[in-house]
Amino acid sequence: NPVLELAGVAKTYNMGKPNAVQVLQAIDLTVQPGEIVALVAPSGAGKSTLLHIAGLLDTPDSGSVKICGADMVGQSDRKRTAVRRSDVGFVYQFHHLLPEFTALENVMLPQLANGIARAEAQARAADLLCRVGVEPRADHRPAALSGGEQQRVALCRALANEPRLLLADEPTGNLDPETSDHVFDTLMGLVRGTGLSALIATHNMDLAARMDRVLRMDKGVLTSV
Ligand code: ADP
Ligand code: ADP
Questions:
Q1: Which residues form a coiled coil (predicted)?
Q2: Quick count: other Cβ atoms within 10 Å of Cβ 42?
Q3: β-pair partners for 10
């Protein structure tokens, strides 16, 4: 089964009102196991809406959304939340780490929320931080970390519950070019090493070219490059 399968996904905001805006038009998109797909889109193209629908944070007006073969449209909120928590990891342009918790605790929290025992959550968080080179900073709070370290910790948090799919919205967009390259290398290494699939939105064509496949989005329509 594909890890993510969107078919005929359409979305209009403010449907039926004078300010209605059709943001997605019949989007078909498939991500296979282990595949890393780039999503390149100008601002306003509908990229965030697409990622939110793929990650079950939003619902389409029509079309189907399948995660690992299971249809998610029409499922209860409870079921969608359960699938999101276990199968999907998110990384954004800004790290959104909780400021009052350490790096280690930030990576433990989603696991604890998923019912994983404290010792196991801690071991897995430490292992992830080690793999991205932030282990020496594990006991620091986000404010004490560099921008690159913050994004590495955010990546670890996204992978903490061993998702099948990573959704990333400009994950290195807030970093200087050199740091961006390093964090991107780390991201690619970690994704390849764990065999998960990823859909990664970026404005950076050099980064996009290093993924398995590039999709371009404009005015709510996807085209392969
Ligand atoms: P991108 O991430 O490509 O910049 P978005 O998916 O955020 O694009 O938004 C696409 C368009 O839809 C934009 O014009 C945006 O203002 C509009 N939009 C996004 N979310 C909403 C919403 N909840 N209500 C109304 N308009 C929205
Ligand atoms: P992110 O910053 O996470 O990529 P967005 O900028 O697209 O996401 O939007 C953040 C939140 O604000 C989303 O829930 C989205 O639906 C909402 N939103 C975005 N644009 C608009 C808009 N023009 N009107 C109303 N809500 C919007």
A1: none
A2: 11
A3: 62
Beta carbon of 170 within 6 Å of any ligand 2 atom: no
Contacts (Cβ under 8 Å, ≥6 apart) of 182: 148
Instruction: Report the alpha-carbon distance of residue 206 to residue 95 in Å, rounded.
Output: 22
Q: Which residue owns the Cα nearest ligand 2 atom 10?
A: 48
Q: Give the ipTM of the model, two decimals please.
A: 0.63
**Closest approach atom of ligand 2 to CA 170:** 4
Considering only CA atoms, which of 59, 50, 55, 56 is closest in space to residue 25?
50
Chain-centroid distance of CA 123 in Å reads: 23
The strands making up 70-71's β-sheet, listed across from edge to edge, are 21-31, 4-13, 62-67, 70-71
Summary count for the chain: helices (H), strands (E) = 7, 10
Residue the block writes with tokens 């019912």: 115
Would you state the pLDDT for residue 225? 84
Interval 114-164: pLDDT, tens = 999 999 999 999 999 999 999 999 999 999 999 999 999 999 999 999 999
Contact between 72 and 6 (Cβ < 8 Å): no
By most ligand atoms within 8 Å of CB, the mutation choice from 12, 15, 23, 24 for ligand 1 is 23
Q: Where are the beta strands (DSSP E) in the chain?
A: 4-13, 21-31, 36-40, 62-67, 70-71, 88-91, 165-169, 197-201, 213-218, 221-224
Check if 35 has its Cβ closer than 6 Å to any atom of ligand 2: no
Assigned token pair, 14: 């403010």
